[in-house]
Amino acid sequence: MYLDSTHGTGMGSDFKFAWSYRHFMLHLVASDLRSRFRRTHLGIIWALLLPLMFASALTILFSTVFKQPWQEMVLYIYSGTILWDFFSTSANRGADSFIESTGYIKQTRMPLIIFPIRVVLSSAAYFAISLIGLLLLVVFINPAHLSAYWIFVVPFIFIMTLICVPIAILCGFINTVFRDFHPTLSIILQFLSFLSPIFIPKEAYLSENMRIFSEINPVFALCNILREPLLHARIPTAHDFFVVLIWGTMLWIVAILFARSIDKKMVYYL
Q1: What is the DSSP code (8-state) at residue 189?
Q2: Which of 11, 23, 230, 243 has the smallest CB count inside 10 Å?
Q3: What CA–CA distance (Å, rounded) separates 117 from 250?
Q4: Residue among 130, 117, 220 at smallest CA distance from 161
């Protein structure tokens, strides 16, 4: 959001202005991906190996503790790992998106929202690459999981992006104004990961004490929307989509209101 009399005052004009910078934004996304693998011999293959190695290590532990078949556990943990990386990276890097782009913001007039959006699009691209690893795991471990329901991954990436963009925008504005926010964000994300079925089987969160929180937890719903079609060949429930819709709407409203109250002052905080 970057407002003045030449570009209107509505959200439509804000995003229209951002759309005019789409090529620059996509250039930044490509630059993010290149820098992530720069000077590595395996390059983009690390997007597959890192979650696989992490999932393998946790599978050895959790398959013993929770008495789950390792074949199911490694797919469960791998899918949770790449989802959580998408979500947490969008929030963490979104918090620094304006600060890291100070040079652009101070030297050139451009819409501020392209910087947190760039972070989310980079995370979405990395997630899409990591999904190839999940597909290969399924083919190798349990081909029965392959089904037409895998098409749901396309709307899932779109839904995740729509959820993560307002989170990145909010974190970016808040952290720019209050520099102590980033350490607090790390604690919030860690707490949320403990309360979500990222690695631990979701049955552990369906007890009487945890059920109410699980039913309104957006990460819980996102995990179901990803895993149900990919790992169980089932359509996600309407409740999961409803939870994500409610949270997404609230996040966008708060992000828009917060951005409009502070965007003209942003340059003074950088």
Answers
A1: H
A2: 23
A3: 18
A4: 117
The listed range with the strongest mean pLDDT (20-34, 98-112, 218-232, 252-266) is 218-232
Measured distance CA(45)–CA(111) in Å, rounded: 34
Which has the closest alpha carbon to 43: 53, 31, 30, 33?
Answer: 33
CA-CA distance, 192 to 188, in Å (whole number)?
A: 6
| pLDDT of 103 above 60 | yes
Say what the pLDDT of residue 27 is.
86
Which two three-digit tokens encode residue 181?
């926010």
Residue 32's nearest CA partner among 90, 82, 87 is 90
4: left (phi over 0), alpha (psi -120 to 50) or beta: beta
- What mean pLDDT is predicted for residues 264-270? 73
Q: Are 1 and 111 in contact (CB under 8 A)?
A: yes
CA distance 226 to 46: 22
CA distance 54 to 77: 8
3-state secondary structure of 121: helix
The whole-number average pLDDT for the span 12-34 is: 76
Q: Would you state the pLDDT for residue 14?
A: 64
Of 239, 201, 241, 196, nearest to 219 by C-alpha is 196
- Which of 21, 133, 122, 9 has its CA nearest to residue 78? 133
Number of neighbours of residue 199 by Cβ within 10 angstroms? 19
Closest listed residue to residue 131, CA positions, set 88, 201, 80, 168? 80
d(CA 78, CA 87) in angstroms, rounded, equals 14
Distance CA 19, CA 12 (A): 10
